[in-house]
Amino acid sequence: MRYREAERAESHVADSEERTVGDESGDERVRRYATAGLFLVTALLFGTAFAGIEVGLTALPPVLFAALRFDVGALVLLAVVAVRGGYWRPLTGADYRAVVVSAVFLVSLNAVLLFVGQQYTTSGAAAVMFSLAPVLSPLFARFLLPDERISAVGAVGILLGLVGVVVVVAPDPTRLLAADAVGQALVAVAAVSVAFGSVLLRRIDPDVGSLAMTAWAMTLSAALVHVASLALGESAAAVAWTPVALGAVAYLGLFSTAGAFPAYFALIERVGPIRANLVTYAVPVVASVTGALVLLERIAATTVVGFAVVVLGFVLVERDSLGEELATVRARLGGRAPPDEADD
């Protein structure tokens, strides 16, 4: 599925880079600017979701709010993949297992924990804690994927990521069971759920495409999260459907879900998964700025420092891949063939 897609994306990127060595044509410049625009749009759509959640939580119960977001997102994404045709629905056992894993860990559990936890923290701090996911993925991969190993430097990177989250949360030892501390912990556990689920998907390696799998996983998740909402005693009948409530559901469902995921997968197709995942670290910046401008949230010094520590952890974990990408970019800027091509 996405891992075979990732290989094709990297191959496509390498071919594009080979063509860009030397003089850059007008079409290539347009493509480069379009890619930068796609990166920005993806970061904006995902980053503003945190402020959207904060706004919606003033009018909606958290778990019901998450379920309604997936109702809207699933309807739009299913329509998109159906219109595109091709391999648009799960067919194999691996496909169905991937949909279930994605629905449980990447969507349902992630959303319930995030929406409940974000009642007790700012949008910027939540986004920084959520950026822990790609730092933790190698830790789960070490135990779930036979060929994966963690170097000493990578282990330090994972520890730094955890330290960064602790800096953001700044826990008070005397109030570890207070509502705000528990809420912040739930956001961090949401990131753990995403990291674990993403590695499980690599282990399953389904054939269905990423966007189609996401659409079906979101459909299943909408049902699961509605059940969770009912189990928690939340009532849609008791909700006052104000413009704020309707606007928050519409924005998250249409833009930060149905718009963000296609943009993200399109970015992977253009630049490959390594560079595309750097958007994870633009999202907290967008979330913090949006929270400050729209919600008048204060950007705490601990949030900034913690974010820097998490990013440093990510750099250590992915240092080899990032080094290869940096060498390729430098070669392109210098008009030379990228290292892999120069060695051929």
From TrEMBL:
It is a multi-pass membrane protein. One of its GO terms (cellular component) is membrane. It is found in: Membrane. It comes from the Archaea. Keywords: Membrane, Transmembrane, Transmembrane helix. The chain crosses the membrane at residues 33-53, 59-83, 95-117, 123-145, 152-170, 182-201, 213-232, 244-267, 274-293, 299-317. Residues 38-169, 183-317 form the EamA domain. Residues 1-26 are annotated as: Disordered. The keyword Transmembrane applies. InterPro entries: AA-Vitamin_Transporters (IPR050638), EamA_dom (IPR000620), EmrE-like (IPR037185). Pfam families: EamA (PF00892). This is DMT family transporter. It comes from Halomarina halobia.
